[in-house]
Amino acid sequence: MEHDGELRAMGAEALDVLIAALVARGYDVIGPTVRDGAIDLHKIHGMGDLPIGVTDEQEAGRYRLAPRADGAVFGFSNGPSSWKRHLHPPQTRLWHADLSGDRPVYVSDVEAPARPMAFLGVRGCDLAAIAILDTVLAADEHYQARRQNVAVVAINCGQAGATCFCASMGTGPAARSGFDLALTELVGDTKHEFLIETATPLGTSLLAELPTRTATDEDLARAAAILETTRTQMGRTLETAGLKEDIAAAAESPHWQEVAARCLTCGNCTMVCPTCFCTEMEDTSDLTGAHAERWRHWESCFTLDFSYAMGGSVRHSPASRYRQWLTHKLSTWEDQFGTSGCVGCGRCIAWCPVGIDITAEAKALQAEARP
Amino acid sequence: MDTRGHAPASLLPRPMRVARVVTEMAGTVTIELEAGAFAFAPGQFVMVSSPGVGEVPISISSDPDDGTPLALTIRAVGATTAVIAAVSEGSWLGIRGPYGTAWPDIPEGDLLLMAGGLGLAPLRGAFLRALRAQERIGRVILLYGTREPGMILFDRELLGWMRQTRAEIHVTVDQAHPGWTGNVGLITTLLERERLDASNTTAFLCGPEVMMRLSARQLAALGVSPSRIHLSLERHMACATAQCGRCQLGPLILCRDGPVVRHSDVGRALGIAEL
Ligand SMILES: Cc1cc2nc3c(=O)[nH]c(=O)nc-3n(C[C@H](O)[C@H](O)[C@H](O)COP(=O)(O)OP(=O)(O)OC[C@H]3O[C@@H](n4cnc5c(N)ncnc54)[C@H](O)[C@@H]3O)c2cc1C
Ligand code: SF4
Ligand code: SF4
Ligand code: FES
């Protein structure tokens, strides 16, 4: 554990008390839940909605749920959805206009959710992704309206997938910052408990309502051992030293063509990415033309429309579109926003229909740069 | 960390009334707006909405300093620009901005402006500023290339500038018509004839990307420092507030870091196909 916050322990069933305490404070609690064969992030009402005793098996191009015997609550790694879906939704109405009078009236649709959101079970990689979105979308009023007042309950990751590489990216498996409370799940033969740590006044006041005991040295040792195990479970690594420069220098590498021979340009990788933020605008109007709306929806740099300008698509070839994605994530993001655009969550690897692996492609490009 | 563009940026347009529409040539109009006090610097652009239809980036073509109305020169090339270019006087457009970087302040020494086609519009304000600074600076050279004699933007104004100012103005067309006695050929052929004092020249370029790429390369070969060659670049722009990701060119977000950029900052990127 890397925090000096107050550390307590509680029985696993106290998670229900935590959820109830958040609901009582007016939050909509969003957490992991099984939907359509995957663990997705939706509104939950109690512990029973969480994927208790469910795990996932992930590999390049593969994702499958499986039971786990120990009844762990957070015994899986990331599913296809990220918190981006709730902070920067796939569709947002930006404004509407009344065009019935002489002078048009534009009305902003910047709106905070009716109830603030509480995110339950945010892993280190996704905490980092939220911090990145906070920077990228700092000036976006619609994002900020949803982001304000979000409560975050993090989970120190106890189950990494074969596609994970957060340890390489320095974002996990421990939750570092950006949460009110952080949990560590201690699953054993006889006891099923959570270590719980507070980082903010909100966290402290929630903690006060939970049936906890003081954490012991033994609890701490178990938590540290769990994080160590998680670290070794990760099936992927990425060498970040010199990565930004090597990828920038590889712009004209023949390797992009080699990836493009496999890539379907489906854009799945950008949709599941917790930091991809790109959007398109679209206007709608009613039949009379008296009412118009502007909508914003997710867009991907894998589409031809994405770069449409000057009478054509700037990035016409699949190779140039894959290059944009990987280069933005691992190199130019840093020029633009001061951090990497990749947090090591591994979603793009699991959800690529043909199993293209960003870590493998980066390694190939690095090898070219430093033979 | 880069903190530019971090002020809350509203995506809500402001309604502005169309005061006057001037037809420049077939399919191209200049729209003057009742914008009230609207501060901008030449080279910047606004987002123009026709609600229910769409929104497009358009450069400001008016004089920033003489109190004339905010003017936009628009060519109808697609669904949204066709509707916007067809607005009538007294109707309304939605405007937000201004956005992006401007042409640098008029530098000491010689100033060379190179415009292709509609690219003269974003350069107009800079040219007018240069005329006002002519006592202080050296030569003011404007090279303009367009497809054919019927497509010379601001033709009457160009004639006036040729007759009444000290600016050296040369026009060329890709295809001549019978009766055209002027230059024929690419804008780079005009450049070949200028005896530039390369070490003392600053260049502003705006036009089709291939024209700017060739011209910038030629200028650099003549000895003009790439850090004194400024280009105005165009990419798809949906937000203009650095939030939609669409206008990236390598490390640059062109609605924020551009549209006006130094050749020294983009030369490599422009040379890489499909970046
Ligand atoms: C910073 C910036 C400043 C700009 N300033 C101006 C300006 O001052 N005046 C102006 O008229 N335009 C300007 N543009 C270009 C203008 O924004 C586009 O022409 C416009 O977005 C096209 O939108 P549309 O919906 O009408 O066409 P779309 O529906 O996007 O395109 C449909 C058709 O138009 C063609 N097309 C699209 N864009 C262009 C283009 N740029 N040139 C030629 N054909 C095209 C396509 O081939 C297609 O057939 C600027 C662009 C940028 C990024
Ligand atoms: S990788 Fe593509 S979709 Fe993702 S943020 Fe970058 S440009 Fe946008
Ligand atoms: S890398 Fe995979 S997920 Fe991404 S666009 Fe290509 S095929 Fe689709
Ligand atoms: S236009 Fe949206 S990021 Fe530049």
Distance between the amino and carboxyl termini of chain B? 24 Å
- The total of helices of chain A stands at 13
CATH superfamily of the largest domain in chain B: Nucleotide-binding domain of ferredoxin-NADP reductase (FNR) module
**Total number of beta strands of chain B:** 15
Radius of gyration of CA atoms of chain B, rounded to a whole number:
18 Å
Give the percentage of residues in beta strands of chain A: 15-25%
CATH class label of the largest domain in chain B: Alpha Beta
How can the largest sheet of chain B be summarized? 7 strands, mixed
Secondary-structure element string of chain B:
EEEEEHEEHEHEEHEHEEEHEH
Number of domains of chain B: 2
Give the strand line-up of the largest sheet of chain A: 3-2-8-9-10-11-1-12
Number of domains of chain A: 2
Flag low-confidence runs of chain B. 1-6
Helical amount of chain B: 10-25%
Task: Give the helices and strands of chain A as they follow along the chain.
Answer: EHEEEEHEEEHHEHEEHEHHHHEEEEHHH
Which descriptors would you attach to this protein?
heterodimer; A: alpha+beta; 2 domains; eight-stranded mixed beta sheet; four-stranded antiparallel beta sheet; B: 275 residues; alpha/beta; Elongation Factor Tu (Ef-tu), domain 3; Rossmann fold; 7 helices; disordered N terminus; binds iron/sulfur cluster; binds FE2/S2 (inorganic) cluster
Q: How is this structure best described in words?
A:
The complex is a heterodimer of chains A (371) and B (275). Chain A is 32% helix and 25% strand. By secondary structure, chain A is α+β, with helices and mostly antiparallel strands. In chain A, the strands form four sheets. Chain A has an eight-stranded mixed β-sheet with strand order 3-2-8-9-10-11-1-12, sandwiched between helices. In chain A, strands 7-6-14-13 form a four-stranded antiparallel β-sheet, with no helix packed on it. In chain A, strands 4-5 form a two-stranded antiparallel sheet. In chain A, helix 8 packs across helix 11 and helix 8 (243-249) packs across helix 13. Chain A is globular, with a radius of gyration of 22 Å. Chain B has 275 residues and is an alpha/beta fold. Chain B has two domains: 14-99, Elongation Factor Tu (Ef-tu), domain 3 (Beta Barrel), CATH 2.40.30.10; 110-232, Nucleotide-binding domain of ferredoxin-NADP reductase (FNR) module (Rossmann fold, 3-Layer(aba) Sandwich), CATH 3.40.50.80. In chain B, the strands form three sheets. In chain B, strands 10-9-8-7-11-12-15 form a seven-stranded mixed β-sheet, with helices on both faces. Chain B has a six-stranded antiparallel β-sheet with strand order 4-3-6-1-2-5. Chain B has a two-stranded antiparallel ribbon with strand order 13-14. Chain B is globular and about 50 Å long. The chains are: A alpha+beta (371), B alpha/beta (275). At the A-B interface, strand 6, strand 7, helix 4, strand 13 and strand 14 of A face strand 1 and strand 14 of B. The complex binds flavin-adenine dinucleotide, iron/sulfur cluster (2 copies) and FE2/S2 (inorganic) cluster. Flavin-adenine dinucleotide binds at residues 45, 54, 56-59, 73-75, 77-81, 118, 121, 234-235, 237, 259 of chain B.
